[in-house]
Design brief:
By secondary structure, this protein is α/β, with parallel strands linked by helices. It has 18 helices and 25 strands. Strands 1, 2, 3, 4, 5, 18, 23, 24 and 25 form a nine-stranded mixed sheet that branches. The protein has a six-stranded parallel sheet with strand order 9-10-11-12-13-17.
Length: 578
């Protein structure tokens, strides 16, 4: 009788292929799925060193999150939280052209400023946490290659590459010479051969350094990007990842096609709803379909809910941040601040300076956009009713939006939060997001699990995908089998990791056992656990009974075990032979 390391008994297996769920045992040995039961009851014979009773629970592949920005954290931390609290067993970073290699020693500060500005990671934490000790991309990979609570993988970032090769000319966004392009291509190929999954770049004006300069890659010419792609393609492996404003959709997408065609490699790019251009996402989807019909492997990466900023007294932003009275309490501890704000005179002065009864929004900034602002609550609703904005609630209550915001933010000891969705929520619903998620050539992505640590907390995207779209949405729910396929197999294949994302013999034993009825994301909370005491937003979840990486349990009911079976994944992985 066969003996296994682990058998998960009697769970409802959603295997990541899109096949209907079924009751089956799952057996694991040496970090690989060795057997999945078939037939009635789906029982696997034999014994195991450990058995997990999964009756009434889902058994799924581990989630693969391909857009996370853990570039710094992966060098100093063995736990990729918050992602690992949300069933994620593989993360990819080096996204958006930002990262920390290759690098000259003199350019450390520049790369920190770029990451701090683009991805809202405190510069002090990066300066303290990054030990450097590397120059080449291969040396950076070695620094990341330590035991982790999940597998990690990365990409060669264009911003670092441009600065390394072109120096001040690269930072100033000057046009690359032929020799510059050849050298950037050579270093990209070198990084791919050392184990990078691909190459990434940014072409959005939203990406600026902490000193206010645009990202070095913003205006890189087509010749530069196509040249780098060609050099990468000669390795026979690797993927391309881009974020763009699509100022000229025709020219920009043609460049994507050229990069994909000359390299023979897959390309993915960020695609979201554009509130100012109603045809934006539909046009890009049509262009992707055309590229696919021409044999070009182009895929859209899309978020699963609105992207929005969090506001709170302890967050980077709050509605009173620019209020002169706020300066009197800004540096106080939370409890002392709540007490100070309860003083009637200070409260009156604060509200008067915020606009009082007229509720005038200073400068029209998002932090005072009460007609777009919602109370987050302990169980966040990421598709709220527009009737529940603070402006509408205040109107019904006969008060001002500022006063309502002040009362809400003083709750929970001064740690309560408000939320302003600014992307993918143009019509007050997620219908467009649903269209994006269900398109055949997109994958769920953009969680930024290791980034935006003071204003955005989207590492819980995989939980929202299942909780909201698979269970809670009143209309337009999406089949769970499809959602699991997208977040597991399809994301993995998008970056060339074909050895995971499926519960079947031969595949990597990265697994989740989920109490689907209990699955929910909590309200984000602030922690001061980054290097140098840096602050970040974290978000936990209920419902993940067991998370397993390479056959080893890493989290049980949301709490970490002592095991660190995850490793750096170097290069693409082939699909197991049948």
């Amino acid at each position: 009788m066969a003996s296994h390391d682990l058998i998960i008994r009697g769970g409802t297996v959603v295997d990541g292929t899109g096949a209907p769920r079924r009751t089956a045992d799952v057996a694991v040995s040496d970090g690989i799925v060795t057997d999945v039961g078939v037939g009635e009851g789906g029982r696997v014979d034999g014994s195991a060193e450990r058995e997990i009773d999964a009756d009434g629970a889902l058994v799924t592949p581990g989630f693969v999150d391909i857009h996370t920005h853990y570039d710094g954290q992966a060098t100093w931390d063995d736990r990729m939280q918050p992602s690992s609290w949300h069933g994620v067993t593989t993360v990819v970073f080096g996204n958006c052209g930002v990262g920390f290699a290759p690098v000259h020693n003199a350019d450390h500060d520049r790369l920190v400023e770029l990451m701090e500005g683009v991805e809202d990671i405190p510069g002090a934490a990066l300066h303290e946490g990054l030990q450097w000790g590397w120059n080449s991309f291969a040396e950076y990979l070695d620094a990341c290659d330590t035991p982790k609570d999940m597998d990690i993988a990365t990409q060669v970032p264009h911003g670092a590459l441009r600065l390394h090769v072109m120096g001040e000319r690269g930072a100033a966004r000057e046009e690359a010479t032929y020799d510059d392009i050849v050298e950037m291509g050579r270093l990209t190929a070198e990084g791919i051969q050392a184990g990078a999954l691909g190459f990434s770049t940014s072409r959005t004006a939203n990406h600026k350094t902490s000193t206010g300069d645009f990202t070095p890659t913003l205006t890189a010419a087509s010749e530069e990007l196509v040249g780098i792609a060609e050099a990468m393609g000669k390795t026979g492996t690797g993927v391309l990842q881009v974020v763009s404003d699509f100022v000229d959709r025709e020219l920009e997408f043609q460049m994507f096609r050229d990069m994909c065609a000359i390299s023979g490699r897959p390309l993915s790019f960020t695609i979201i709803e554009n509130q100012r251009q109603s045809d934006f996402h539909t046009d890009l989807l049509t262009r992707i379909e055309g590229a696919r019909s021409d044999g070009l492997q182009i895929t859209g990466q899309t978020p699963v809910r609105p992207i929005g900023i969090l506001l709170g007294f302890e967050c980077t932003l709050n509605p009173f941040l620019l209020n002169p009275v706020w300066k009197e309490v800004a540096e106080l501890a939370p409890a002392a601040r709540v007490e100070a704000l309860a003083d009637p005179d200070r409260r009156r002065r604060l509200l008067d300076a915020a606009g009082g009864a007229d509720n005038v929004a200073v400068g029209g900034r998002l932090i005072e956009k009460y007609d777009m602002m919602y109370e987050l609550g302990e169980s966040p609703n990421y598709e709220p009713d527009p009737a529940d904005t603070l402006a509408r609630r205040a109107e019904r209550a006969g008060t001002t939006s500022a006063e309502l915001a002040l009362d809400i933010l003083g709750g929970n000891g001064g740690t309560a939060m408000l939320w302003v969705p600014f992307s993918n929520f143009a019509n007050g619903n997620l219908d467009t997001t649903r269209d994006l998620l269900t398109h055949p050539y997109t994958v769920p992505s953009l969680s930024d699990g290791g980034a935006h640590v003071g204003t955005i907390c989207d590492g819980s995207f995989p939980t929202t995908l299942l909780q909201h779209w698979g269970r809670d949405r009143a209309e337009g729910r999406i089949d769970l089998e499809f959602l699991i396929q997208r977040q597991c197999r399809d994301t993995a294949r998008t970056v060339g990791l074909r050895d995971r994302g499926v519960v079947a013999p031969g595949y990597r034993a990265d697994l989740n056992v989920i109490d689907f009825d209990r699955l929910r994301a909590h309200q984000p909370e602030l922690a001061y656990d980054l290097p140098a005491g840096g602050r970040r937003l974290l978000q936990r979840a209920d419902g993940y009974r067991h998370t397993i990486v390479a056959g080893v349990e890493t989290y049980a009911d949301g709490e970490a075990t002592d095991a660190l079976p995850g490793r750096l994944v170097r290069g693409e992985r082939e699909e197991p032979s049948s």
